[in-house]
Amino acid sequence: MTMKMHLGSLDELGDHICREISIDSIQFVRRNSQVTLDEGTTLSIEVFHGGDHWAVTGKGTPRITTVCDRCLKPAHLELSIDFSVEVPRNSSGKRDDTGDDQQKQDPGTIPEVDYEHIMDLKPRIREELILAVPVKVLCSDECQGLCPVCGQDLNVAECDCDTEFVDPRLNSLAELKKEMLSDSEKQ
Ligand SMILES: [Zn+2]
Ligand SMILES: [Zn+2]
Q1: Domain containing 114: what range?
Q2: Which of 8, 17, 29, 140 has a CB 3.0–4.6 Å from the CB of 117, allowing a cystine?
Q3: Cβ pair 120, 112 in contact under 8 A
């Protein structure tokens, strides 16, 4: 499945199409942790013929799986995607840089449309997904994380470590374990 839409049927101003497109082939990495989209995840894409541009909107609540920042076990969460972008109709996706772009916000990645009127949405959707992942991901709000001394998963069992005066060098134990985990997941 591709994240491309054929715009050949949009001939006149106001014409529009709406499609559910499959996005579960997208993967990316955040803070050494792989992020995968749940199978069958789709996004609802609508494209309007807006005269000199295509008005594109994308909406959906894709579910992802990544790694909990505290205990390093799989964490599942739902993202909220809701974007809109204007794509100039007479170009391959690049805006001309003349004029008043200082006061404009960064419009994000503009999807490219090829000579066969096919719009490639993947780069933009990927960008939206990366931005939608929260800075801190937890498997649950109550996650106890790992013991900074021995690495014990405190959700499973307690340990006898004295964690009140932890050697700061040992704080990196959790980080190290995480790196080892993500290394072993690389194909
Ligand atoms: Zn956790
Ligand atoms: Zn411990």
Answers
A1: 4-132
A2: 8
A3: yes
Residue with tokens 């807006």, as numbered in its chain:
50
Instruction: Give the single-character DSSP code of 154.
Output: T
Same domain? 113 vs 91 = yes
Residues 15 and 96 occupy one common structural domain: yes
Gap from CA of 151 to ligand 1 centroid (Å): 13
Centroid of ligand 1 to alpha carbon of 32 (angstroms): 16
Q: pLDDT tens digits for 30-87?
A: 988 999 999 999 999 999 999 999 999 999 999 999 999 999 999 999 999 999 999 9
Question: pTM, whole model, 2 decimals?
Answer: 0.77
**Locate tokens 């194909």: which residue?**
187
Same domain, 126 and 164: no
pLDDT of the residue at 40: 94
Distance 146 CA to ligand 2 centre (A): 8
Same domain, 47 and 81: yes
| Residue 163 CA to ligand 2 centre (angstroms) | 8
**Based on the structure, what is the number of domains in the chain?**
2
Q: β-strand 4-6 against 81-88: which pairing, if any? A: unpaired
